[in-house]
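Translate sequence into structure tokens.
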Amino acid sequence: MHSEVISGTAIANHPVVTGEQWLAERKKLMARERELTHLRDQIARERRALPWKRVEKAYVFDTPEGPRRLADLFEGRRQLLVQHFMLGPGWAQGCPSCSFMADHTDGMNVHLAQRDISFVAISRAPLAEIARFRERMGWQFKWVSSYGSDFNHDFHVSFTPEEMDKGEVYYNYAVRPFPAEEAPGLSVFYRDDAGEVFHTYSTYERGVEVMMGAYQMMDLTPKGRDERDVPYKMEWVRHHDRYEPAPASVATPAAAPCCAAHA
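Result follows.
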């Protein structure tokens, strides 16, 4: 047996076995991993089979190139991925968790483009506030402002003061409490040859983990995500320019939830 305490997380009495025993256990787990892979493939097929909804409203966004319609954001491609980035008007900085998602974006964009996919982040903050934070973080991906349009409200990632006063909003396909006026999400759109745009898919809450490749790597390790058992598990996440240098062993710091960290 192996017993060790690392970063406040006990890895106690973990089995240590022979090579033959390890291989047998690894093959058992591999069978389960294959089941998960096949299930993921099946769900992806079902996702692609979902019906589409025509986008009727003429949304206009403020971009560095001037006002642009939703159809313009495709940049000549047929598919568009949108990150609903939590950066509201007047916020000093974007949500740390949305920033964690965005840190994965620039490297994948060249590959997405090869599969007929454009990517854009959309926030309700005015363009100048977006540009200031984008420059600080060093990102290159396209990021536009929906300020003054209904886009964020129609896709249920921004909430009015009246909605917040009621204590419940419509988010993740249900009416429920939510602690902030902005929320994270991902949406997918398709543009046909006639220029019509269709909403094909949106996901919220833990669904946005699809953008968090670092989490998938953490899940391979013995300590996993190593997060505290608190309601907001991502309390440890910081903007990438706000982390302290990581020593060999460090306790997980406490922090405010990302929804409150914009102040």
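Note: Residues 187 and 202 are 4 Å apart (CA to CA).
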